[in-house]
Amino acid sequence: QVHLQESGPGLVKPSQTLSLTCTVSGGSIASNTYYWSWIRQPPGKGLEWMGAIAYTGTTYYSPFLKSRTSISRDTSNNQFSLQLSSVTPEDTAEYYCAGSRGLGGDNWSSYSYWGHGTQVTVSS
Question: Considering only CA atoms, which of 17, 53, 36, 9 is closest in space to residue 97?
């Protein structure tokens, strides 16, 4: 069975870059016809789709975060990563990685696999 796990620093200073990695086991991010997404949930708010990288390597981004977001992958380690630049306290959230058969966006029922999430706090 496919398993996803997020990792990275839990605390980032304002103006710096938030970097997270999702490690995928039980399936290949390059060979399986899936889209691999980053999703976040600020405290007391709903889920927000940030972007995704397809099994082909093509990236897709939320228009609200496109200017600050970069998603990449390391196929040799079966990982994909998130970089969110110029962070502010508004970026404090639980961050999830997830997999879907199509480009899921904010259609949460389309996601077949979810990581457990990792808390990231932006603070001085």
Answer: 36
Task: Count the helices and strands in the chain (H runs, E runs).
Answer: 0, 11
Number of residues that this document lists for the chain: 124
Q: What is the pLDDT of residue 32?
A: 82
**Mean pLDDT (10-residue bins), the chain, 124 residues:** 96 98 94 93 98 97 97 97 98 98 94 97 96
Burial of 52 (0-12, 13-18, 19+ CB in 10 A): buried
All residues at 6 or more sequence positions from 24 whose CB lies less than 8 Å from its CB, including other chains: 2, 3, 4, 36, 78, 79, 80, 99
